[in-house]
Design a protein that fits this description.
Structural class: alpha+beta
Strand order of the largest sheet: 18-17-19-20-28-27-26-23
CATH superfamily of the largest domain: Class I glutamine amidotransferase (GATase) domain
Oligomer: single chain
CATH class of the largest domain: Alpha Beta
CATH architecture of the largest domain: 3-Layer(aba) Sandwich
Helix content: 10-25%
Number of helices: 14
Number of strands: 39
């Protein structure tokens, strides 16, 4: 069965007729004018044929063939086997069972039997988790989740005479593109999609440890912040305790209160007492009214190391802030300290840990993890323009940290005319170069971000920590600041001063390239020692130094260092690698050969192409996109300089399948609405089967050949015109 179909308006039809009449008249006139020669007549007939085909094309012709279906109609039954189907919230014979158990019950009684009369039933499943218990499993799967688009798309591709589709699922779509797109394909082919929603519309009573974002490593003897997220689906506030477990031993704990039906984010502090690799667990006790009792914990891996930080302190005179900072860092066993004291108009300071001048070369400066710039600027007997440029390169390319600590002499303003101006986290008020003095004592007031940040953490309890900051001795002088720059995170503000932009930021941090920058806008942190000695003063600057240098020591060996971002990647995250390589003399490697190799958890090897970063700091970068979870083995080497480093990066799988969540009824209802199907609850399964059984058989398949958009059709018309014009030239016609 076939016929032609046209889609042209009356105007297009009249235009086509006019073109045909005009072409006929022109052809007749030309033939007459050339003595009715046979060659001319043949050429004009050729042109008439081309114009006829072109006019026919304007009518948008389509050749339609109707193909009668000879095979029986098919009904596809799709069962959801994803992890979320293990949620226990389905009522069956006066008891609560899991969604998957209900599905097994229905499958056992072969609920689709009434459909087998007159139809072929195709029973399948989707989103089944991989078998990780297999002895052949060497890596985690690439992604675990529910992809409704892939499930429906596979059915419409594989089955050629679909009558309807029935999905038994909770609709927890968490992977792949929106299923609405594939639903339109079902609508265009007249195939309704039905769904049985398995589960409840409200989350069940439960507490779950959603995520733990532990760093890749921590330092021995120093506190390590381990952020976590807990989701509560209980209708009440819960006073509980989060516990850090090493096997059966509790190595840290913290009292918390979880809000009713809310998400709670916090950090627990851990003070490791030994070096090594640790597999730890973070958990919360099970409440009596929880329906799920196996999702209250999360495992993670962390390394504890001993790292010696290299710190450089630069100032112009031995003010109190400088003296106490220097003493605190000098007594820190984890810090290798150097100082440069540029006395104005006299020789630089000398003594233990002092340098006679600023280390003004890449090879000398690249060893430092953190640089403190006090009341010093760019000018005579201070830093040079080259020094400022070197500091900027060290921060941006090698991932070191920079701390701005302005003083009352106002030298910091000269830094704003150097390369360091781009690194400053705040905008300074150049009309007040000597800063702002006050008769009354002021204090630093923590911002919302500062209350939970590692740098401002003096106590694991956030409320206690906030009280400590309020009781710390204050200051009488501060740097004149207008506002923070875009991209800056303000940790603390002036307790008294404000302007049109709000409170004056005095403690702020900012990312600069691969490094970090901190601005301290007062010179009185040394006063925090009053009555408590080094308790708070030492801890603050110790946390600053270690936080800033953290990324530089993710993986290192003599003459080579590797950092990566993000530190704890997930499948699908793009991981950026930066290798810093030094030659045998300790100079940053330039124009050298640096090779990389990566071995995936599945055992597949791949070469990494490392590209040298401009600037001459010996930094080589590359990236990769992990497609599966597990430990990736990374090897970086510079064969000409005997530098080699091996490390591993643990990539985790996003936890898409979660228990206790309500069903996603809206997406299933929309799919049914688009396709002309229906979405119902579990007690309506037999009713839906009855509706599918009385559906009419699929219409004959319709195949349309669109001549108006067919390239062969257009090519034929073009060929006729080419032959016509070529023939005119050969025949000597003008």
């Amino acid at each position: 069965m076939s016929h032609w179909s046209f889609a042209a308006s009356t105007l297009i039809l009249l235009t086509g007729v006019g073109v045909m009449v005009l072409s006929t008249w022109l052809g007749w006139s030309i033939w007459q004018r050339n003595g009715r020669r046979g060659k001319v007549g043949l050429l004009e007939l050729l042109r008439f044929a081309a114009v006829t085909l072109l006019a026919f094309t304007l009518l948008r012709p389509e050749f339609v063939r109707l193909i009668e279906r000879t095979e029986p109609p098919q009904v596809a039954i799709l069962s959801d086997l994803s992890g979320s189907m293990l949620t226990r919230d389905v009522v069956s014979t006066n008891e609560i069972i899991t969604r998957s158990e209900w599905l097994e019950e229905q499958t056992g009684r072969e609920f689709w039997k009434p459909l087998e009369t007159g139809s072929e039933v195709v029973v399948g499943a989707f989103a089944a988790p991989p078998d990780l218990s297999s002895t052949n499993t060497v890596a985690q799967p690439k992604e675990i989740g529910t992809d409704l688009t892939a499930a429906l798309g596979a059915v419409i591709e594989q089955q050629k005479n679909l009558k309807a589709v029935l999905m038994l699922t909770d609709g927890d779509w968490n992977l792949g593109p929106s299923p609405i797109g594939v639903a339109t394909r079902f609508r265009d082919q007249g195939i309704p999609v039905y769904s049985i929603v398995t589960g409840q519309d409200q989350p069940i009573a439960d507490l779950s440890m959603e995520e733990v974002s532990a760093p890749a490593y921590g330092l021995f003897g120093e506190q390590i912040a381990i952020p976590y997220t807990v989701q509560s689906h209980l209708p009440r506030d819960v006073a509980t305790e989060v516990r850090l477990m090493n096997g059966r031993d509790i190595i840290a704990s913290k009292k918390i209160t979880l809000p009713a039906n809310g998400r709670f984010r916090d950090s627990i502090m851990w003070y490791p007492r030994e070096v090594g690799e640790f597999d730890l667990r973070l958990d919360i006790p099970v409440e009596v009214d929880e329906a799920l009792r196996d999702n209250n914990s999360a495992d993670f891996h962390i390394a504890v190391r001993v790292v010696k930080l290299s710190v450089l302190v630069v100032d112009s005179e031995p003010r109190w802030e400088y003296r106490f900072l220097r003493n605190a860092l000098a007594r820190d066993p984890g810090v290798d300290l150097n100082c440069v004291l540029l006395h104005p108009k006299i020789a630089p300071g000398g003594g233990r840990d002092y340098l006679s001048s600023f280390p003004g070369s890449r090879e000398m400066l690249s060893r430092y993890d953190v640089i403190f710039l006090g009341d010093v600027g760019v000018g005579e007997d201070q830093l040079s323009e080259k020094d400022a440029e070197l500091i900027k390169g060290l921060i941006e390319q090698q991932g070191s940290g920079l701390v701005f600590m302005p003083g009352r002499r106002g030298n910091h303003l000269s830094l704003m005319n150097s390369e360091l101006s781009e690194l400053m986290p705040v905008i300074l008020d150049d009309e007040k170069p000597k800063g702002v003095g006050m008769n009354n004592e002021s204090v630093l007031t923590l911002s919302n971000l500062g209350r939970g940040h590692l740098l401002t953490r003096f106590d694991a309890d956030e409320m206690v920590n906030d009280q400590i900051w309020k009781m710390l001795p204050g200051f009488y002088w501060s740097t004149a600041v207008t506002k923070s720059r875009p991209g800056t995170e303000v940790l603390a503000v002036h307790s008294e001063l404000r302007n049109q932009f709000g409170r004056i930021p005095l403690l702020a941090i900012r990312n600069a390239g691969r490094g970090k920058v901190l601005f301290m806008g007062t010179d009185s942190a040394w006063r925090w020692r009053r009555g408590v000695e080094d308790k708070f003063h030492y801890r603050f600057w110790s946390q600053v130094a270690r936080w800033m240098a953290h990324k530089r020591h993710l993986a290192e060996k003599e003459g080579i260092r590797l950092s990566f971002t993000p530190e704890t990647p997930k499948v699908g995250d793009r991981v950026f690698l930066q290798a810093t390589v030094l030659d045998e003399a300790g100079f940053p490697l330039e124009d050298g050969e640096v090779n990389g190799e990566i071995l995936s958890p599945g055992g597949q090897g791949e070469q990494l192409e490392l590209t040298e970063v401009e600037g001459g700091w010996g930094v080589y970068s590359t990236e990769f996109l992990p497609q599966e979870g597990g430990a990736y083995q990374i090897k970086i080497d510079a064969p000409d300089h005997d530098r080699e480093l091996e490390t591993k990066i643990v990539v985790t799988l996003p936890k898409r399948e979660k228990l206790g969540r309500p069903v996603n009824r809206p997406v299933l209802a929309e799919i049914a609405s688009i396709t002309g199907g229906e979405s119902a609850n579990t007690d309506s399964l037999d009713e839906i089967i009855q509706k599918i059984s009385v559906l009419p058989e699929p219409e004959p398949a319709e195949l349309r050949t669109r001549l108006w958009s067919n390239p062969w059709w257009g090519g034929t018309i073009l060929l006729l015109l080419v032959v016509y014009w070529t023939g005119r030239k050969l025949a000597g016609l003008i």
